[in-house]
Design goal:
39% helix; alpha+beta; six-stranded mixed β-sheet; single chain; Chloramphenicol Acetyltransferase
């Protein structure tokens, strides 16, 4: 048994019948690296042998009676791998866009809370003989950094490497209602009383930080309360749009080096430019104000929790959709990102960051807050601001599932009421993989936004100084 952290419980409590709090982890396997070719049964058996490497896969949610404390994870005594692994095939002929259309459709279902909160669709018939493992994993389990750790437990950098044998799994008995209540009461001082003074002090220090900014003549740091409602900020519908594809990481590195910025600055600039074009298509004036982007940051993980739990915090930065010139926008984004990093550093030191506050919020308070955002604010306010942006460095070496090569890897977070678009960039080997998840009514065609992002990237590549381009070619 394990009690959920504040951020973990937040992900569960924010979920509604239209706001799905699971993430996508998509692996594209190349079976041609195995002399025996693809076998679903072989994959299924290998998965069963590897399940112990990621313990959360056999853990399900159990609430604390009366919502007096965060829920707990318990072993699923009736764990059935066949329920979680589903075999399907794309209608032929199928291309990458057909795979994305399938993923968008299966994303739009809630996971069953009476079972472990994940499901893997094994998709055969992908173009060029590939097989896609489309996994829905609830964000309550783990953040992006923890998911990357789990990925490296299941996949190895040596083809054909088998996991070490372990004895058969014996699940611990599920605690009774009364025991869960008693545990919630006993743990309550450690969860709330231990953190409450820190949070109260942190909020006071946060207010002092805002006053310090004002006294120094600095503009206020962006916050959700300052966001302008745009066409991409609405209450969620049931449907989802999902697209993903790859771009060369060399382009991002070349821009970063040639124009004196970071890879993340390039990501922010291209995302802002793509959304600017989208607004112009939708008859919304992007020049009226910049957007506010919510960005997660990895926090310190306790020992033994490398592949479990959410230890991220979040901060906000200006996303300059209001700037037409790409170079000016790039450097404005660089300045905004640096300001966000400095603000986050001070906030974490004061214990007034997003994750600290979540530690003390009981589930009923989060549910009430979610209702207020959905029913009263109607998309004009969201904890994830106008748009959710995430840039996660993934594995740089080629990985294998047994002898099947991991050809590519895509990952994305979620969207919520008020924040209808999530753009997640996850690198793997020499590729940068961009995923766009959106509400289907807000963005029916995700490829339009993806195409705008690529055009912005190509524009920045063309603006790299000639000297930097020659040095890149020489190296």
């Amino acid at each position: 048994m394990m009690r959920l952290g504040g951020a973990d419980a937040f992900m569960l409590s924010m979920e509604t019948s239209k706001a799905y709090m699971h993430t996508f982890k998509v692996a594209i396997l190349d079976p041609s690296t195995d002399p025996d070719g693809w076998s679903f049964q072989k994959f299924h058996d290998d998965f069963a042998d590897r399940a112990h490497l990621v313990p959360m896969l056999r853990m399900k949610y159990a609430d604390t009676p009366f919502g007096i404390n965060h829920p707990i994870w318990i072993d699923d005594e009736n764990f059935n791998l066949d329920y979680h692994i589903r075999r399907v095939a794309l209608p032929q002929p199928a291309d990458h866009k057909a795979l994305c259309e399938f993923m968008g459709s299966v994303y739009a279902y809630q996971l069953d809370r009476t079972r472990p909160l994940w499901k893997c669709w094994v998709v055969e018939g992908v173009e060029d003989g590939k097989v896609a493992l489309v996994t829905m994993l609830h964000h309550a389990y783990v953040d992006g950094v923890g998911a990357s750790y789990g990925l490296e437990q299941l996949y190895k950098d040596t083809p054909g490497l088998k996991p070490v044998f372990v004895p058969p799994w014996e699940p611990a008995p599920a605690p009774s209602w009364l025991k869960r209540l008693a545990m919630g009461i006993v743990d309550w001082p450690g969860v709330v009383l231990k953190n409450l003074p820190k949070v109260v002090m942190g909020l006071r220090q946060k207010k002092a930080l805002e006053q310090k900014y004002a006294s120094q003549g600095k503009p206020p740091h962006p916050a959700p309360s300052m966001m302008q409602q745009t066409p991409i900020n609405a209450v969620l519908s049931y449907g989802r749009t999902f697209v993903c594809d790859s771009m060369p990481i060399a382009d991002f590195k070349g821009i970063a080096k040639g124009l004196g910025v970071t890879i993340n600055d390039v990501f922010l600039c291209c995302a802002a430019g793509a959304l600017r074009r989208l607004f112009q298509d939708g008859y919304y004036n992007p020049d009226s104000s910049p957007l506010i982007a919510a960005t997660p940051f990895a926090g310190e993980r306790p020992e033994g929790m490398e592949g479990m739990g959410n230890f991220v915090t979040m901060d906000y930065c200006w996303l300059h959709t209001d700037i037409a010139d790409p170079i000016e926008r790039l450097h404005a984004g660089h300045k905004a990102a640096n300001a966000m990093k400095a603000h986050l550093k001070e906030s974490v030191a004061m214990n007034a960051d997003f994750s600290a506050i979540l530690k003390i919020l009981p589930p009923w308070a989060v549910k009430a807050f979610s209702w207020w955002l959905r029913e009263k604010k109607r998309g004009s306010l969201s904890l994830f601001a106008n748009v959710a942006l995430s840039n996660v460095p993934g594995p740089r070496k080629t990985l294998y599932w047994d002898k099947y090569k991991l050809e590519n890897w895509y990952s994305t977070g979620q969207i919520c009421d008020g924040t209808c678009i999530n753009m997640t960039m996850w690198s793997y080997c020499d590729s940068v993989n961009l995923c766009i998840l959106a509400d289907k009514e807000v963005l029916p065609d995700g490829w339009k936004l993806f195409g705008y992002f690529k055009q912005e990237l190509e524009t920045l590549v063309s603006l790299i100084p000639e000297q930097a381009t020659e040095e890149k070619l020489a190296s």
